Amino acid sequence: MKINQFGIIETTFEQKITELTAIGFYDATIKLAAQQGPMALFAALMKQAAITTAVKTNFSDYMVNENQDLADFLTTRTALTMQEFDSVALQLLQFTENVDYTLAEPVKGIKALGLPLADIPGTWSTNDLLSAWYDLMTTHTKNGLQFIDLLASHGYFKTTNESLFFNGKAMVTFDTKTLKKEVVYVETDLDTDNDGMKDLVRVDIIRPTTNQLVPVLFTASPYYQGTNDAISDKNMHQVNVPLERKRPNHVTYDEISYQAAPTKELASHKKTGETAVASKTFYPTSHVDLNNYFLSRGFAVVYSSGVGTRDSDGMQDTGSPEQVASMQAVIEWLAGNRRAFTDKTSGVMIKATWSNGKVAMTGKSYLGTLATAVATTGVAGLETVISEAAISDWYQYYRDNGLTIAPGGFPGEDMDVLAELVYSRMQDAGDWHRTKTQWQQKQAKTVQEMDRAGGNYNSYWDARNYLKNVANIKADVIMVQGLNDWNVKPRQVFRLYQKLQELNVVKKLYLHQGQHIYINNNRSLDFSDQMNLWLSYKLYDVNNQATTQLPDITWQNNQQPDTWQIKASWGQTTPTAISLANVQTPVSYTDQQTRQAYATYSQDYQTWRSLMMNREKHDLDHARIMFLQPKQTQDLLIDGEVSLQLRMKSSSNIGLVSAMLVDYGLEQRLTTKPVPQGKQIDRGKNWQPTSLVEFGLAKSTPFKMITIGHMNMQNRENPWRVNDLRPREYVDLTLTLQPTLYQLTAGHQLGVVIYGTDFEMTVRGNQNITYTIDTKHSQLLVPIVTVADAKINGKK
């Protein structure tokens, strides 16, 4: 086990005393004890911590070495060293003797666990002890909390409903039992239902009861007002359909670039009065865990599903400029720049008089996507976004290089299916029957514009490409992405990250080894602490050096558990060209399967994928070409985008090419789903606990997919230009795979598997097509360096 903490700021001894005073660990009683020496001070600090149930009042329950307990030590000894303090600190931090450390060598255990406790040799003075006690407060326990937060969850702080900061982070001083829950309706500048009136969107607010102004965490979630799972599932598209030939064209980007329609004059809702008190409340539903963490720390939390959702006006349209604008309007109201009403009919206006005007957007997947999208509007009041597994270009989510591509695990899903899922207005029978015809017309238009059969990039997709508007971003950006997330694939964050390098905004990136997950409850990384440091700085103006303290890139190493490392860049490594001519040329493979195999793999694409990577002979050999490199003599780091430059031909006038980069070597690899640790993390004081999780080591496997890519051979130039493809005629193309950051172990082999149909992600035409590759004129481009040369650092 190892704890990686990046959210601790260095402080002077004078600052430590000031902060210890503020949290009650340097009051009159402790000052008096300090005058009597380190042993009396140690006893006083322990007694103060023991006012909570997190610390035992019987000091004989703690050992300072193998032969002496703390109670005896405090009464018989006159000198304190790091050895004794660390022994007790490890027990306070919930680590287990002879499992996590030994009493014979506690300092060695501290270093192995990566704990940031004080390293002070010799006999300690009272000042040494006070400094070390401060460091103990900021150190993580075995079970996922800073020690000060563990004390807080057991009632250490009084609920003053006033902000208190320690080591630059907001403390648990707000009463979650008295949170206010309010509903307002923000007036947008949209009319997506064409009734001539400005659409209103429902906004749910959860905020502390306090006299101080508070900042806001806003999560834009189309799922929040409910989802239509059964109806959406029925509308999944058939993927067992043939790949269709597309008519060649000479379309340029200028011809398909999105141009916003002229704005229309819309009627505003009539104001009949104004109030400071909301008239509606709501019953709490499942909320974002990171948001729950901040409610006990003096932040308000706001949720909205936007236009076309339950209790809001308008029509749902996945990722559209209108959907983004409706979420932008919520920010504007929170910042004091837009109108809202207490309900949809009375005309009584309400202002966010409790807001300090500073807003952060949070959330994963669709939620993080809208955070990114709203940031590209440059809206005033949005100080930062924390976008996790966020889409930056919807085309790259449901399409890829002219192909219709499914998000991993969801064959048949598309923009219209997702819109159907979140059009929660149909959950109210009356509202549904009033809007049913209009909704069906809207969906028919979406199906036409998204062009599932063609798969080309067009103005519909261009309107949903937020990368075009990155230059408008004024907010600082935190990005989180799983390198094994094949739902929202790594290219989404990679392209955004690259674009942000051109802007004078702070950008921080977290790359983990998980799938489509949150990482705020991870045991080995202090992500919630870091976000506390960040949001205390951005929204409360705490001078805590957050911009320099948080690493630019935090990467979870894929070789070892509990290992998070620092990088300065991603994707800057110059590619190395690897020839594919080490096998006969040309080489061919055939896409078609037997009827039985086709039926089997259509139902079980995970088995299909595993077989496609397996080096052993099997009945899928005819459907792939595998290129293997020699065993590596040292650890290598693949840093960025891997590309295949291929000269190939199809036996037909249609064709698709897919490829997987694979790590071959028997190895225990990290799980891509975190494993519950059997503990709960308290998000305040008896408030919204969540499971503590960690990536573990799975059973040994002989291979692992590193990354993947797909292309329609007719879109080999770009996704909007359709090239001709003549049977049995070679063409040159470059297939760029999803970006990665992956450490390849010495003794392993790097391989690339090239094939056609991807049973999980592409259409499954099962057409009798043979593909041929001219290996003499083909190569693999890998951005690879030795680990020794890579600029990777450990914990700060």
From TrEMBL:
Could you say which enzyme class this protein belongs to? hydrolase
The Xaa-Pro dipeptidyl-peptidase C-terminal domain extends over 532-781
Show the InterPro entries listed in the entry: AB_hydrolase_fold, Galactose-bd-like_sf, Pept_S15_Xpro, PepX_N_dom, PepX_N_dom_sf, Xaa-Pro-like_dom, Xaa-Pro_dipept_C
Record's keyword terms, sorted:
Aminopeptidase, Cytoplasm, Hydrolase, Protease, Serine protease
Q: Does the keyword Cytoplasm apply?
A: yes
GO molecular function terms listed in the Swiss-Prot or TrEMBL record: aminopeptidase activity; dipeptidyl-peptidase activity; serine-type peptidase activity
The GO cellular component terms are: cytoplasm
- The protein in question is named Xaa-Pro dipeptidyl-peptidase
The species is Weissella hellenica
Q: Could you tell me the gene encoding this protein?
A: pepX
